[in-house]
């Protein structure tokens, strides 16, 4: 191989198309004469629907159909519970259209299908509905108390799930500890806010009996399976395509959002294509959210700073429904000890129903909350023991010699024991210290203070279990006409650059340029074995499956080429889309190899003509295809990870706080990051940087403001503050590459990494900056100017 | 649906009052009857088939729908198509060369990995392009570029690479 693609900063194959405005997002798919959907959504959090009259809406010109729960036949059911778990009592999932009661503001009650969205929205306003209002409790702690208003009348105390996990012997550790540190921390409700809202379009072909659905989903294969089951269609007659998708961040994998069932139903009933394009307000009040957790975490330490035990009890807000089971809380509880050895852990959570949009994973999935809890506690412990914040972490890190490091008793979200596979935590911390910390910063901080400016150093470390199973597949084929390489996998991308990193993996094996590898994913007609895009798993799980398929294809190419060139395999090398006899100018192009491997008689192109100049690709007697032989050069392989791969990182920042204006300005941000072997460092940096920006949003700006009556006060991008370029500081990213021992490529996931530590970094930095003003504790994010003002007031400043 | 069922019949369009608009889009004259309340973004996307202009919020915050109206970067989601009567509109589809070769601003985005999902990208490019095409001097300092980008949201990249792309575009355009 002349140059290696794996590990190179290769520009993305998909970019020219997207840059020219030639992307194909759901609402861009041309449909003949489509009908458009709008929903009536509940304007109240908890109520009984006394009466609903859709008469005026039905007769409004341009309306094709109006559906309430009474009109949707077998779809009038509670939607599936995706991940059952014994810790849940009476788990609740949403119905496509509300029956009887509503549980949050935004819940779908009726669906209008009309000639355009404008008309559909007109008709929504014509539905007459009477509610019997119920009281609500929005406070997570109060919601658990006896007598609190209930989200579901048959779920006492709004307790959705209660679960305890124990590793080691925490009681014994607490009994022999010399020092205890206890803090309560909170992270508030946020949302993914992808730039493209969710979207579904469907077309029913009554002649062929085929249902085609374009869904901006992270899980097209699962959607296909669900639709086939629910509509009683053969799986082969349902095609689900996730076309270009404008960001997902977890929000676009839920089985099902109401529209994902109702739009296909409507197209089958109405005989016209139907589309639902979620608007921004609906994305805020109808699509999944995440984050609110309140942790009470206690560390049991020795005077040396060594933490020997951890107890954490937290409340997890699951919204009005729990379709994903306890996944978010389980990830938080199994990530609670971070990169630290802490051998004795007791972690408990209570998942609580609140009358709000359902909670399912949003980039980070419980990890930012767990990181915030353990890192705030470590800072507090450092302060109490008068140990430097870097040093206390260094003393507690799992060392390189200790991997794989199991946490017996803790089961991760994949159902497998938590086992951290590899890392160089101490080295990463040292790099952060060298970049921002040390005496140089302390001098700078002193000098700034002398001028009345408050600078602080923020620091946080995180781990991330990535690459969860169960499996993905990869299919690799050499095209006989062009010699280009076609690659399929089941999970789709939402901007991560799959088409390029998968191309890089394949390019090295078969000796082509990554630009000549065409990746098709997220179309059930192209490849329909697989799971979905979530949990930072695409590079690990699909990447390794594709790698395995490429290795098999490489072997097939070599065997065929050896026959065609009449040499031993050992004399061959693959490069420049051809098999070459080493040290000679004799070669056979991949297109000719693929063509010659297909015993078809027609020579309708150059590759076929070229193929005839060589010996046969296969040496055997009898029929053109020997028994057990397949035509062409292709392979399908699968990869099922034995356990999650654990990525990690250390983030640090220089933060300036203005105690007069109570503003926070991040001056510099450094991220030391390790996701194992990097397939494309440029793409890794893009993922990390985007995650950090979302993390900054979560640390300082992005809070969903639910009012005491359950209404969301900031359900728009004017009031929910997603950072612009003006809010994001310069970020420098430094890499470590500790290969994962768990998979052939040695890779770990990176999708969620960037966002995890930012809240903890900001809180740590603000505390450090304000230290001269008294004991000011930052234990709650997003950190607003008002919260800083209150903290300063409490400290008597 | 039963195979014996007859396909229902629905109107093809609403009863909204319609007016004729004449405008120029990407150098081509266009004359159409449109609903008086149709947004310019919907007109471009669904009447003219120019789906490169995206709609991210419909309240003028995200900038995904940015097009040029008479040379100025403008929100097509806050503009009614009737307001565009007589105007000269340019969309993302008109930026690359006819053979698909990328414009320097687009090329810079590719080189700098300044896009991920690509949904905000057309609006970003149209905004940046309008500033490069203005005669006024451009502030290409770090803060000047951030300010230039402050009308466009991106949820994927964290902006750092977009800032780099603006610098690179300036180089490619001989404006650095």
Features of this protein?
heterodimer; A: 797 residues; 7-stranded mixed sheet; globular; B: 176 residues; 5-stranded mixed sheet; 5 helices; 15% strand
Sum this structure up briefly.
By secondary structure, chain A is of the alpha+beta class.
- Work out the oligomeric state of the chains in this entry: heterodimer
Q: Which word captures the global form of chain B?
A: globular
Q: Cα distance, first to last residue of chain B?
A: 62 Å
**Helices and strands of chain A: which structural class?**
alpha+beta
Rounded to an integer, what's the Rg of chain A over CA atoms? 28 Å
Strands of the widest sheet of chain A, in order across it, are 3-5-1-12-9-10-11
Into which percent range does the helicity of residues of chain A fall? Answer: 25-40%
What is the typical, i.e. mean, pLDDT of chain A? Answer: 96
Q: Quote the average pLDDT of chain B.
A: 96
Strand order in the largest sheet of chain B: 2-1-5-3-4
Secondary structure: helix percent of chain B: 25-40%
Terminal Cα separation of chain A, in Å?
66 Å
**Shape assignment of chain A:** globular
Determine the number of helices of chain B (DSSP H or I, runs of at least 4 residues): 5
Percentage of residues in strands of chain B: 15-25%
Largest β sheet strand count, sense and barrel closure of chain A = 7 strands, mixed
Which segments of chain B are poorly predicted (pLDDT under 50) over 5 or more consecutive residues? none
Number of strands of chain B: 5
């Amino acid at each position: 191989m002349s140059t290696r693609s794996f590990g190179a900063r290769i520009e993305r194959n998909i970019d020219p198309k997207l840059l020219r405005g030639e992307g194909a997002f759901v609402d861009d798919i041309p449909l003949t004469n489509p009908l458009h959907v709008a929903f009536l959504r509940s304007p109240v959090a908890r109520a009984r629907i006394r009466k609903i009259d859709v008469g005026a809406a039905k007769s409004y010109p341009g309306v094709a159909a109006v559906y309430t729960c009474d009109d949707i036949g077998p779809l009038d059911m509670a939607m599936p519970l995706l991940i059952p778990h014994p810790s849940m009592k009476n788990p609740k999932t949403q119905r496509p259209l509300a029956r009887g009661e509503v549980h949050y503001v935004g819940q779908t009650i009726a669906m209008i299908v009309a000639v355009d969205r404008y008309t559909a929205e007109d008709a929504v306003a014509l539905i007459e509905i009477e509610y019997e209002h119920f009281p609500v409790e929005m406070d997570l702690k109060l919601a658990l108390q006896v007598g609190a208003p209930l989200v579901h009348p048959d779920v006492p105390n709004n307790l959705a799930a209660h679960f305890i996990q124990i590793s080691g012997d925490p009681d014994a550790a607490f009994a022999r500890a010399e020092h205890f540190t206890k803090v309560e921390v909170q992270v508030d409700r946020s949302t993914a806010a992808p730039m493209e809202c969710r979207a579904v379009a469907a077309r029913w072909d009554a002649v062929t009996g085929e249902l085609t659905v374009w869904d901006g989903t992270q899980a097209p294969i699962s959607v296909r399976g669900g639709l086939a089951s629910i509509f009683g269609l053969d799986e082969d007659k349902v095609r689900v395509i996730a076309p270009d998708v404008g960001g997902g961040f977890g929000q676009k994998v839920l089985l099902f959002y109401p529209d994902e069932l109702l739009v296909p139903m409507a197209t089958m009933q109405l005989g016209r294509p139907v589309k639902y394009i979620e608007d921004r307000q609906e994305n805020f009040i109808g699509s999944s959210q995440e984050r609110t957790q309140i942790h009470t975490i206690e560390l049991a330490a020795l005077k040396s700073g060594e933490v020997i035990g951890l107890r954490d009890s937290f409340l997890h807000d699951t919204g009005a429904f729990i379709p994903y089971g306890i996944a978010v809380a389980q990830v938080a509880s199994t990530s609670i000890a971070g990169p630290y050895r802490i051998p004795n852990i007791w972690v408990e959570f209570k998942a609580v129903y609140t009358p709000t949009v359902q909670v399912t994973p949003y980039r980070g999935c419980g990890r930012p909350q767990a990181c915030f809890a353990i890192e705030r506690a470590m800072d507090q412990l450092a302060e109490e023991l008068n140990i430097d914040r870097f040093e206390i972490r260094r003393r507690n890190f799992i060392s390189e010699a200790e991997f794989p490091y199991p946490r017996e008793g803790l089961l991760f979200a994949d159902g497998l024991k938590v086992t951290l596979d590899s890392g160089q935590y101490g080295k990463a911390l040292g790099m952060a210290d060298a970049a921002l910390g040390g005496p140089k910063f302390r001098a700078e901080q002193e000098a700034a203070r002398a001028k009345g400016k408050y600078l602080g150093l923020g620091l946080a470390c995180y781990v991330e279990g990535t690459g969860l199973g169960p499996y993905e597949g990869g299919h690799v084929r050499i095209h006989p006409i062009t010699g280009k390489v076609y690659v399929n996998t089941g999970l789709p991308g939402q901007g991560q650059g799959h088409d390029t990193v998968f191309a890089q993996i394949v390019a090295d094996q078969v000796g082509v340029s990554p630009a000549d590898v065409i990746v098709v994913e997220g179309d059930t007609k192209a490849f329909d074995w697989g799971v979905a895009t979530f949990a930072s798993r695409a590079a690990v799980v699909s990447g390794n499956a594709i790698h395995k398929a490429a290795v098999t294809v490489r072997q097939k190419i070599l065997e065929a080429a050896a026959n065609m060139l009449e040499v031993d395999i050992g004399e061959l090398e693959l490069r420049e889309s051809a098999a070459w006899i080493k040290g000679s100018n004799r070669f056979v192009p991949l297109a000719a190899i693929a063509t010659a491997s297909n015993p078809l008689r027609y020579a309708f192109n150059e590759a076929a003509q070229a193929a005839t100049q060589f010996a046969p690709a296969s040496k055997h007697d009898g029929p053109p295809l020997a028994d057990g032989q397949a035509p062409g050069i292709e392979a399908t392989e699968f990869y099922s990870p034995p356990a999650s791969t654990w990525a990690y990182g250390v983030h640090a920042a220089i933060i300036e706080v203005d105690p007069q204006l109570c503003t926070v300005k991040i001056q510099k941000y450094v991220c030391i990051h390790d996701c194992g072997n990097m397939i494309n460092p440029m793409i890794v940096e893009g993922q990390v940087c985007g995650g950090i920006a979302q993390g900054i949003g979560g640390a300082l700006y992005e809070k969903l403001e639910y009012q005491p009556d359950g209404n969301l006060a900031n359900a728009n991008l004017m009031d929910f503050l997603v950072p612009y370029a003006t809010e994001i500081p310069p970020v420098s990213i430094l890499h470590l590459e500790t290969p994962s021992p768990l998979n052939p490529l040695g890779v770990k996931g990176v999708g969620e990494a960037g966002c995890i530590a930012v809240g903890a970094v900001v809180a740590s930095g603000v505390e450090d900056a304000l230290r001269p003003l008294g004991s000011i504790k930052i234990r709650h994010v997003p950190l607003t100017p008002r919260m800083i003002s209150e903290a300063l007031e409490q400290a008597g400043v | 649906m039963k195979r014996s069922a007859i396909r229902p019949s629905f109107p093809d369009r609403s009863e909204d009052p319609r007016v004729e608009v004449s405008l120029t889009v990407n150098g081509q004259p266009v004359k159409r009857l449109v609903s008086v309340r149709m947004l310019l973004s919907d007109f471009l996307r669904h009447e003219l088939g120019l789906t490169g202009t995206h709609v991210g919020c419909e309240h003028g915050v995200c900038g995904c729908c940015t097009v040029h109206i008479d040379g100025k970067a403008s929100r097509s989601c806050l503009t009614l198509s009737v307001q565009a009567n007589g105007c000269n509109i340019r969309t993302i589809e008109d930026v690359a060369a006819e053979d698909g070769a990328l414009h320097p601003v687009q090329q810079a985005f590719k080189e700098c990995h300044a896009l991920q999902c690509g949904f905000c990208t057309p609006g970003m490019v149209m905004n940046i392009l309008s500033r490069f095409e203005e005669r006024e001097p451009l502030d290409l300092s770090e803060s000047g570029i951030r300010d230039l980008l402050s009308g466009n949201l991106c949820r994927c990249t964290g902006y750092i690479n977009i800032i780099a792309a603006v610098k690179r575009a300036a180089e490619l355009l001989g404006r650095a």
